[in-house]
């Protein structure tokens, strides 16, 4: 797998972020915007950057939401965005505490199946370590074997299965 790095989204990557967004829209995948839901709501890069900057701090995070950091996964050799991943500062929230977890991510549809999600999660666990968050909850649909492999390969230990709107969700814990 090619080397990737996680960095904060910026104007420099604006065009590629919106090409990434368009690719997700065209994929028409129910989980396409996992970990980057604010991207679907944004009409331009400035709006997107403003939204995610508000989410970074508990005092500016929208009511009912949890503060978080968003990172773009950039392939080093060609500087192309291959994924987006979130780091939620806590999961003291009815949805995140039950089935959403500390992490949401998506890989660019044209880049899937290359080990990118596994590496994105590994790198993001280092970000959790820097924030001194030692126990992470990560989840996936029971039928999403690819995500399950990503979680397990990064130390995820099965905790339990929960049912949300008739969907079976597997919860895993990762200890940093």
Structure description:
- The mean pLDDT is 93.
- The protein contains six helices and seven strands, in the order E-H-H-H-E-E-H-E-H-E-H-E-E.
- The protein is globular, with a radius of gyration of 15 Å.
- It has helices at 14-27, 37-41, 45-55, 94-100, 116-130, 145-153; strands spanning 4-7, 68-75, 80-88, 105-107, 135-141, 157-164, 167-175.
- A four-stranded antiparallel sheet has the order 1-2-3-4, sandwiched between helices.
- By secondary structure, it is an alpha+beta fold.
Strand order of the largest sheet: 1-2-3-4
Class from secondary-structure proportions: alpha+beta
Helix tally? 6
User: From the alpha-carbon coordinates, what is the Rg to the nearest angstrom?
Assistant: 15 Å
The number of E-state strands comes to 7
N-to-C SSE string, H for helix and E for strand: EHHHEEHEHEHEE
Distance from N terminus to C terminus (CA atoms, Å) equals 24 Å
Considering DSSP H and I runs of 4 or more, what fraction of the residues is helical? 25-40%
Flag low-confidence runs.
Answer: none
């Amino acid at each position: 797998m090619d080397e990737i790095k996680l960095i904060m989204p910026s104007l420099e990557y604006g065009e590629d972020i919106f090409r990434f967004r368009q690719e997700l829209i065209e994929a028409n995948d129910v989980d396409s915007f996992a970990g980057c839901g604010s991207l679907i709501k944004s009409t331009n890069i400035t709006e997107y950057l403003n939204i995610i900057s508000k989410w970074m701090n508990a005092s500016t995070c929208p009511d009912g939401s949890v503060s978080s950091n968003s990172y773009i996964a950039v392939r080093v050799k060609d500087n192309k965005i291959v994924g987006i991943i979130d780091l939620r500062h806590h999961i003291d929230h009815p949805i995140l505490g039950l089935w959403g977890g500390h992490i949401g991510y998506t890989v660019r549809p044209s880049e899937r199946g290359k080990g990118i999600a596994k590496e994105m999660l590994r790198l993001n666990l280092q970000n959790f370590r820097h924030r001194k968050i030692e126990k992470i909850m990560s989840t996936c649909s029971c039928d999403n074997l690819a995500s399950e492999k990503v979680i397990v390969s990064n130390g995820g230990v099965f905790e339990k299965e929960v049912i949300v709107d008739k969907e079976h969700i597997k919860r895993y814990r990762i200890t940093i």
